[in-house]
Specification:
The complex is a heterodimer of chains A (about 210) and B (about 240). Chain A is mainly alpha-helical. Helix content of chain A is about 70%, strand content about 0%. Chain A has helices spanning about 1-5, 20-40, 40-45, 45-50, 60-85, 95-120, 125-140, 150-155, 160-170, 180-200, 205-210. Chain B has two domains: about 5-90 and about 165-245, Rossmann fold; about 100-165, no CATH class. Chain B contains nine helices and eight strands. The chains are: A mainly alpha (about 210), B alpha/beta (about 240). The interface of A and B includes residues 207 and 209 of A.
């Protein structure tokens, strides 16, 4: 509502179907934000189980991703109904949202295992992440046009690529470019690898700290 | 008693990171710019075997590595060196509060732990057995576990552990917190489990309890296995440890 009331009135921020534009960005953002916020303390929060049962620790952040992925799917289904209400017709191309969601989930999983494993040793990671998120949110063109954000910022903001991919699938008459897909695949794989390397190197020592 | 080893430890060393500098935040790490973690051996070169049907007592002073040894048996902790072989299934480590999720109520904890051990989550027989053995009321089982007294936690945790019908029961000083009636009931159940030919790994500071339950025992001191043998001999040596100090 704040976006619609304020950002849509800025003359330089004219966007056709502004409500759809901002909602499609927010769907992706809320998935990422909810997953990371809930998962950052998931290992510490399950210390009782981890200390007494031989269970892969990765299940705890993974369970957060899976539960939020269900919400993500439901939200996208509601969004598709709203899209139709705004006069946008359905096409087979919209099925591309499935790989797009999976790539974003892999990227988010990489972030969650990275944050949750470091948070075991340094308990202010969750607090720091809470302060980084608003900056990341405003650096991502969710409520305003892409050209209002510095290209340099967009280029190094991984979430921008996933939101752009999702929006292209939903709204644009053109299909997403191969470059955009490759960027998203590389970012998701890179983030997952980084998270997995850090998580695997720390996981044997969780028990000494939790 | 079969000679087959249920548990086999060969030269096992387990190391933990210890943070002796009090650095627990990124802010402190950035300002001090020093690695706060040092690796410390908690178990050093431990070798022992437990035969199928044998019950082993683990004795030692506070901080000697008893709980770490149990966690290594349960596969919760990976050894840095050496090999651990387990030829059977084991119930969750029965330590005070261990395994129970504080935010979940008694029923939810039962379902969670049963499902984690491959039992059907809604296995009504197992759930009824747990309720019967724990003697906790329906009202108590509907409360979150964080509101339980230590005795109630011990009742529920013990009842869930024995419901798993595993080959190895691991008990870490948990019986001390239940009331006398429940302690006696637990001891009776432990004898029955022994008679069924299952193994018990029992950590206690009470040599009397170890003698009642265990055939053999090991004595740990500062992460090292200093004695192993018949439970009566090891209990005597354990008591002598305190006479020296």
């Amino acid at each position: 509502m704040i976006f619609i009331a304020i950002f849509s009135k800025i003359p330089s921020n004219h966007i056709d179907n502004y409500i759809l534009y901002v909602t499609s960005g927010l769907i992706f953002w809320f998935f990422f934000s909810n997953v990371t916020n809930q998962a950052v303390g998931s290992i510490i929060g399950s210390s009782g189980l981890i200390k007494s049962i031989n269970i892969p620790v990765v299940f705890f952040p993974l369970s957060e991703i899976i539960s939020e992925l269900f919400n993500f799917i439901l939200t996208i289904m509601v969004f598709l109904v709203v899209m139709h209400w705004f006069g946008i017709s359905y096409s087979f191309r919209m099925f591309l949202i499935i790989p797009c969601m999976l790539l974003f989930a892999i990227f988010s999983f990489g972030v969650t295992i990275l944050l949750s494993s470091i948070n075991v040793f340094f308990r202010d990671v969750g607090i720091l992440w809470g302060t980084i998120q608003p900056a990341l949110f405003y650096m991502t063109p969710i409520g305003y046009r892409e050209d209002l954000v510095s290209p340099l910022i967009s280029r190094y903001n991984p979430i921008y690529y996933f939101i752009k991919l999702g929006r292209t699938i939903f709204h644009d008459p053109q299909a997403p470019t191969m470059d955009l897909w490759i960027n998203c695949i590389c970012i998701a794989a890179g983030m997952y690898l980084l998270g997995a390397v850090v998580f695997n190197s720390l996981k044997n020592q969780f028990i000494s700290t939790i | 008693m079969s000679a087959e080893n249920l548990i086999s430890f060969k030269n096992v060393t387990v190391c933990y990171w210890q943070n002796n500098m009090g650095i627990h935040s990124i802010k402190d790490l950035v300002t001090t710019r020093r690695n706060p973690f040092q690796s410390k051996a908690i178990l050093k070169n431990i070798t022992f075997n437990v035969a199928r049907g044998e019950s082993l007592g683990v004795l030692g002073r506070n901080g000697s590595g008893k709980s770490t040894l149990l966690r290594t048996i349960a596969g919760v902790v990976a050894p840095k060196e050496g090999t651990v072989e387990i030829n059977g299934s084991f119930a969750p480590i029965l330590a005070i509060g261990a395994g129970l999720e504080p935010e979940l109520n008694g029923y939810e904890n039962m379902e969670l732990l049963l499902s984690l051990y491959g039992k059907a989550r809604k296995n009504t027989n197992s759930i009824q057995n747990i309720i019967d053995f724990s003697e906790l009321s329906d009202e108590a089982l509907r409360m979150p576990a964080k509101r339980y007294s230590s005795g109630m936690v011990a009742r529920l945790a013990f009842s869930i552990s024995i419901a798993n019908e595993a080959d190895i029961l691991i008990i870490d000083e948990v019986l001390a917190v239940g009331d006398h009636g429940f302690q006696m009931k637990c001891m009776e159940k432990i004898y029955k489990i022994k008679e069924e030919g299952k193994s018990i790994i029992f950590v206690s500071h009470s040599p009397g309890e170890v003698l009642k339950i265990c055939d053999t025992a090991i004595l740990l001191d500062n992460g090292q296995l200093i004695e192993q043998g018949k439970a009566s001999d090891i209990c005597e040596k354990y008591e002598n440890l305190f006479l020296k100090h």
